[in-house]
Amino acid sequence: MSKTAELQAAIRDVADFPKPGIIFKDITPILSDGKLFRQAIDLLCETAGDRKIDKVVGIDARGFIFAAAVADRLGAGFIPVRKKGKLPWKTHQAAYSLEYGEAVIELHEDAIKPGETVLLVDDLLATGGTAAAAVSLLEKLDADLVGISFLIELTFLHGRDNLSQHPIHSILSY
Q1: Which residues have a catalytic role annotated?
Q2: Where is the Phosphoribosyltransferase domain (predicted)?
């Protein structure tokens, strides 16, 4: 069985979470299995290609899990994009819509130096609102965004359309 097939087999669907009508893709079986977690990180690291990455940016909260591990493997710094009010320093903010609500994310103003190469990593691409908001924050800092990588993409929500100006990599698609 291929690495992607093993990962796909481990993901559990949870109906009506976090609200009725949503089928949540539960990644905790991957996280709890050392071999599968390593495979997921391996595949996400491969999306960087041969580019030297200065910073890996992860989106609150599940994106932190993958982005921090990818940053460690690539020898890069890790930068958190947090929900509003969670970062202790001066921030830039971006508002966005989710498939089930609205939110604001923040990034420290000094998190990335102009021109630093950045890989944005998150667990899931749904409508693309969260990732698009994170991209707008990175653009404010003049980051060189070399790619956006997701463990899972829900293709039927067309989130990729909101990010089409950047290379997008998804390990698993539904």
Answers
A1: 62, 99
A2: 40-152
Has residue 117 got a pLDDT over 90? yes
Burial class (CB in 10 A: 0-12, 13-18, 19+), 21: exposed
Task: Specify whether the CB–CB gap between 7 and 40 falls below 8 A.
Answer: yes
**Residue 20 has what DSSP assignment?**
T
Q: Tokens for 37, please give them.
A: 């977690």
Cβ–Cβ under 8 Å, residues 63 and 122 = yes
Greater confidence (96 vs 171) lies with 171
d(CA 19, CA 152): 20
User: Structural domain boundaries of the chain?
Assistant: 49-173
CA 156, distance to chain mean position in Å, is 18
Residue 2 and residue 95: Cα distance in Å, rounded?
Answer: 38
Q: Identify the CATH assignment for 49-173 out of 3.90.180.10, 3.40.50.2020, 3.40.50.1860, 3.30.1360.70.
A: 3.40.50.2020
pTM above 0.70, yes or no: yes
Better pLDDT: 65 or 1: 65
